[in-house]
Write a structure and sequence with these properties.
The complex is a heterodimer. By secondary structure, chain A is mainly beta. In chain A, the strands form three sheets. In chain A, strands 2, 5, 6, 10, 11 and 12 form a six-stranded mixed beta sheet that branches. In chain A, a hairpin with a 2-residue loop joins strand 7 and strand 8. Chain A starts with a strand and ends with a strand. By secondary structure, chain B is mainly beta. Chain B contains no helices and eleven strands. Chain B is globular. In chain B, 39% of the residues are buried. The chains are: A mainly beta, B mainly beta. At the A-B interface, strand 5, strand 6, strand 10 and strand 11 of A face strand 4, strand 5, strand 9 and strand 10 of B.
Chain lengths: 115, 113
């Protein structure tokens, strides 16, 4: 069955330090996409970064990078130089799944950046 | 401005009283989807639509209905709401649904008494 696992319910990081949020996935598909979204306390969902399964290079978007290890089925989000505004819930997601156009999300990691 | 809108943003209702949450996008997207978010469970997909008149079940479709009569609109219908449908609901859209970024609406917080 398709599944996304985020094993860290909550994390703390000191301001200006880097932090890695873990995401592992399970799929038998050869072609799929992996996404990270941020949900601040205000509630909206903000897209951060995307990695295609056939992309050979890890995706980067500003301070965000995705550490994609296909053989290990992991897609960890790395945030460099953490800022107070990075405090939020972070969700890993995958699509499509097994010939459908379903999206699957993980349970999320709540990140708190400390001053 | 490109956006996904949802109405209402907050709703308190009682068990069994039919309700509709509207969703509209102005980006000419073909793919639209509904999710519910519950603590500890993340987001779970309820229904999605590939295009007008084409819908399919997500992982938690029980108790919900959808329709896609126009490309821009994708309402979520709860015909007989129950307390276990108390949740935060998100509508989202993307161009075609195939490994693309989804754009999310602001969310609708529903409380069923």
């Amino acid at each position: 069955a398709q599944k996304i696992t985020q094993t860290q319910p909550g994390m703390f990081v000191q301001e200006k330090e880097a932090v890695t949020l873990d995401c592992t996935y399970d799929t038998s598909d050869q072609s799929y996409g992996l996404f990270w979204y941020k949900q601040p306390s205000s509630g909206e969902m903000i897209f951060l970064i995307y990695q295609g399964s056939y992309d050979e290079q890890n995706a980067t978007e500003g301070r965000y990078s995705l550490n994609f290890q296909k053989a290990r089925k992991s897609a960890n989000l790395v945030i460099s130089a953490s800022q107070l505004g990075d405090s939020a819930m972070y969700f890993c997601a995958m699509s499509p799944t097994s010939g459908t156009y379903k999206y699957i999300f993980g349970t999320g990691t709540r990140l708190k950046v400390l001053a | 401005e490109a956006q996904v809108t949802q109405n209402p943003r907050y709703l308190i209702t009682v068990t069994g009283k039919k309700l509709t949450v509207t969703c509209s996008q102005n980006m000419n997207h073909e793919y639209m989807s509904w999710y519910r978010q519950d603590p500890g469970l993340g987001l779970r997909q309820i229904y999605y639509s590939m295009n007008v008149e084409v819908t399919d079940k997500g992982d938690v479709p029980e108790g919900y209905k959808v329709s896609r009569k126009e490309k821009r609109n994708f309402p979520l219908i709860l015909e007989s709401p129950s307390p276990n449908q108390t949740s935060l609901y998100f509508c989202a859209s993307s161009l075609s649904g195939d490994q693309e970024t989804q754009y999310f609406g602001p969310g609708t917080r529903l409380l069923v008494l």
